[in-house]
Amino acid sequence: MEIRTASSPKDVKHYTTERLREEFLIQNLFVPNEIKLVYSHIDRIITGAAVPLSPLTLTAGEEIRAEYFLQRREMGIINIGGKGTVTIDGTVYELENKYGIYIGMGSKDIVFNSADTSNPAKFYINSAPAHKTYPTVLIKPEDCAFVELGSLESSNHRTIRKYILPGQVESCQLVMGMTSLKPGSVWNTMPCHTHDRRMEVYLYFEMPEDALVFHYMGEPNETRHIVMRNEEAVISPSWSIHSGSGTQAYTFIWGMVGENQDFDDMDGAAMSDIK
Q1: What function does this protein fulfil (predicted)?
Q2: What is d(CA 101, CA 228) in angstroms, rounded to the nearest whole number?
Q3: For the residues of 13-52, what is the DSSP string, one character each?
Q4: HSE toward the beta carbon, residue 120, CA cutoff 13 A
Q5: 62 Cβ contact partners less than 8 Å away, ≥ 6 residues apart
Q6: Which helix (H) or strand (E) holds 181?
Q7: Are 134 and 112 in contact (CB under 8 A)?
Q8: Which region holds residue 139: left if phi is over 0, alpha if psi is between -120 and 50, else beta?
Q9: Residues of the binding site
Q10: Is 90 exceeded by the pLDDT of residue 225?
């Protein structure tokens, strides 16, 4: 498990491109027949992926000093690949493309597998510390709360599906969802915002090999950008904006952890203040 430390906004404004990418960009997440995990000191989120060509068992590892991975944690998973299964303490859950699952604290044995190794599952993982056990829930995209926002005229016509959030799938602090841009739209989350009480991680996917997303971060009056490619993730501290513009439409998964789960608890940044 790779460990990433927290960064001060006063320091980040002096980072080079290379340093920005080293601190916040997560590359090579989806490695065949491996579980890759990145632990961030920012709200103790773990971001990762599993691409099973044979059964892969999730273990705690030395880094979190636990008897098993979810001894003190909860987890959200969304499959962006072929059909697969997640077996939790002997119960098998089938996850088709864009199906998700919430796994509550205390689940011990977690095994990932693919239905077809020529088109393996790609399980994207967010995990956060937990204080209470909530039920494990299989989440189908059609059952998610969703909203359609933006317009083609403003290049941000998009659909937001909320997978894990209060009132739908209960969790201690983890909130997850997926945003899909319509063809011809390239902007997400603009006008932009911050949320001091939660951090966020974005995974960009469904992009051609030669496509790019310019992910904007930093304080509203001190913005920086990170060039991102297909199936790469980025860590967004609570003090940072998190907005992107692509060379064409794309999809991204957002995961948030922190003090509250209020989706609308945002501090908007005026367009006139963006620098």
Answers
A1: Catalyzes the isomerization of 5-dehydro-4-deoxy-D-glucuronate to 3-deoxy-D-glycero-2,5-hexodiulosonate.
A2: 26
A3: TT--HHHHHHHHEE-----BT-EEEEEESSTT-EEEEEB-
A4: 19
A5: none
A6: strand 175-181
A7: no
A8: beta
A9: 193, 195, 200, 242
A10: yes
CA distance 194 to 74: 24
Q: How many CB atoms lie within 10 A of CB 240?
A: 26
CB 60 within 8 A of CB 1: no
| CA atoms within a 13 Å half-sphere pointing along the CA-CB vector of 260 | 8
Question: Could you read off the pLDDT of 85-129 as tens digits, one per residue?
Answer: 999 999 999 999 999 999 999 999 999 999 999 999 999 999 999
CB 178 within 8 A of CB 165: no
Binding site for Zn(2+), residues? 193, 195, 200, 242
Query: What one-character DSSP code corresponds to residue 165?
Result: B
Domains observed in the chain? 2-273 (2.60.120.10)
What are the φ/ψ torsions at residue 56 (nearest 5 degrees)? Answer: -115, 125
- Whether the predicted pLDDT of 271 surpasses 90: no
C-alpha distances in angstroms, 271 versus 36, 88, 193, 203, 268?
37, 46, 10, 25, 9
What pLDDT, in 10s, does the model give residues 142-164?
999 999 999 999 899 999 999 99
The set of residues, in sequence order, having a beta carbon less than 8 Å from that of 223 and lying 6+ positions away, is 216, 217, 241, 274, 275
The conformational region for residue 61 under phi > 0 = left, psi -120 to 50 = alpha, else beta, is left
Q: How far is it, in rounded angstroms, from Cα 140 to Cα 165? A: 14
